[in-house]
Design a protein that fits this description.
- The chain has 387 residues and is an alpha+beta fold.
- The strands form 5 sheets. Strands 7, 8, 9, 10, 11 and 12 form a 6-stranded antiparallel sheet that branches. A 4-stranded antiparallel sheet has the order 1-6-2-3.
- It has helices spanning 5-14, 28-37, 53-56, 65-75, 132-138, 156-165, 170-189, 226-229, 239-246, 265-277, 294-306, 324-338, 353-361, 373-384; strands spanning 22-25, 42-46, 59-62, 79-80, 90-91, 95-98, 103-114, 119-125, 143-148, 192-203, 208-210, 214-217, 250-253, 258-262, 284-287, 312-319, 344-350, 368-369.
- It has 14 helices and 18 strands.
- Helix 6 packs across helix 7, helix 11 (294-306) crosses helix 12 and helix 12 packs parallel to helix 13.
- The model has no long low-confidence stretch (mean pLDDT 93).
- It binds guanosine-5'-diphosphate (GDP) and manganese (II) ion.
- Residues 51, 198, 212 line the site of manganese (II) ion.
Length: 387
């Protein structure tokens, strides 16, 4: 789960990580008022769960309070397009007013979970404002990377190595170390999966400040953080994913046009691979789970069929704990309820496979049958067309 910049900055403040004063404005008058409080100038920032807002017109400098009100009006409700949103962009529903900082240097800092080393890892670079992927490609020597031992936590020595790598010195060096220590505590205590501070800035006054903040959380740990759950913004999540999560389905929307209904995450990955291998493109990842009910299967199939970008569906079930007849009934019930307008190919194997096939063939629905996974993938790609 991700949160907005203004929410991330509230968390930073709780953990005494330096960040500029800033508040959400609810109307233009409030934007004007806040800007007055900040000495007559402010940065007006669109709140969406995507980066690159600056270049897309979602971060603007207000030179006086009237200008802040004007920028607020233009920003609220706009469809903001950045290189991370896709062409349709995201609607701006919240506008944040930030106290401007005089920047001396812009740096990059991220905490993430490195799966290779199974450790929380710091990535820091002197190239703030730039994408870390681009820095990694062009100037790998400018990145400081430190893996943190979970038993020991971030050591003073490691924090100093990062601060040194960022080129900090004197007072800023000390402030940088404190910043890192506090941010690490936030990361661990709140079960974050990623914290990106881009840019981290050294101000003209020598302070080390998070000018932007993106925080992502481990969904599997959300149950123990009601305060974090309360920050969830469903507007920022794909509608189908929100719907699927209500039924305990593991669903991720993708760009392709072949809907996939599969049980087991590994099988779902394998199914996506084989669709790609045969020239098609999956519209989603879906694991209906091991012991899903007929109702969950029905809802999964309904969610897939309702997606207008889905031009065909591949159902691939390996019955283990999951029984093929339950899947077949779920598919048939969903199909009868909303109708099937696209080709569907089903491949069933395992527990109760004969009953499952019987239910499908007696349903009167026009379903393709895959003899095996390869055959099923070929048939659905042939029916839908290559990507
Ligand atoms: P992003 O484009 O979505 O990553 O949004 P950011 O919050 O990172 O803002 C984009 C850029 O605006 C930053 O990299 C800064 O260069 C600039 N910016 C944002 N806030 C301030 C500020 O308070 N003072 C100054 N001078 N520049 C700012
Ligand atoms: Mn940024």
């Amino acid at each position: 789960m991700n949160i907005h910049e203004y929410q991330a900055k509230e968390l930073l403040r709780q953990y005494k990580v330096a960040t500029p004063d800033g508040r959400v404005a609810h109307d233009a008058e409030e934007a004007r008022q806040i800007t007055k409080e900040y000495g007559g100038q402010s940065v007006v920032k669109a709140q969406i769960h995507a980066g690159g807002r600056g270049k897309g017109g979602g971060v603007k400098f207000a030179t006086d309070p009237d200008k802040a009100a004007e920028l607020f009006k233009a920003m609220l409700g706009m469809q903001l397009v950045t290189k991370q949103t896709g062409a349709e962009g995201r609607k701006v529903r919240t506008v944040f007013i930030s106290d401007p900082v005089d920047i001396e240097r812009e740096l990059y800092l991220a905490f993430l979970v490195d799966r290779g080393s199974s450790r929380v890892t710091i990535m820091a670079s002197t190239e703030g404002g730039m994408d870390i992927e681009e820095v990694a490609e062009k100037f790998p020597e400018k990145i400081t990377k430190i893996a943190i031992d979970p038993a020991l936590g971030l050591s003073g020595h490691q924090a100093r190595t990062v601060a040194f790598g960022l080129g900090l010195s004197g007072d800023a060096f000390k402030k940088g170390v404190t910043f890192l220590m506090n941010l690490y505590r936030l990361f661990v205590e709140k079960d974050c999966s990623m914290v990106e501070i881009n840019p981290l800035v050294v101000s003209k006054h020598g302070d080390v400040i998070a000018l932007d903040a993106k925080i992502g959380f481990d969904d599997n740990a959300l149950f123990r953080h009601p305060d974090v759950q309360a920050m969830r913004d469903l507007h920022e999540e794909a509608e189908e994913e929100v719907e699927a999560s209500k039924f305990g389905l593991n669903f991720i929307k993708l760009d392709g046009n072949i809907g996939c209904m599969v049980n087991g995450a590994g099988l779902a990955m394998g199914t996506m691979d084989i669709i790609k291998y045969h020239g098609g493109s999956p519209a989603n990842f879906l694991d209906v789970g091991g012991g899903a009910s007929e109702e969950a299967v029905k809802n999964a199939f309904r969610i897939i069929l309702q997606d207008p970008s889905v031009k065909g569906v591949l159902v691939n079930i390996f019955g283990g704990i999951m029984r093929c007849d339950i899947v077949a009934n779920g598919v048939v019930n969903a199909a009868k309820e909303i109708g099937i307008k696209v080709p569907v190919v089903v491949r069933l194997e395992g527990t109760n496979v004969e009953e499952g096939k019987k239910i499908l063939s007696e349903s009167g629905l026009n379903l393709g049958v895959g003899q095996n996974l390869k055959d099923a993938a070929e048939k659905i790609v042939a029916a839908v067309g290559k990507a």
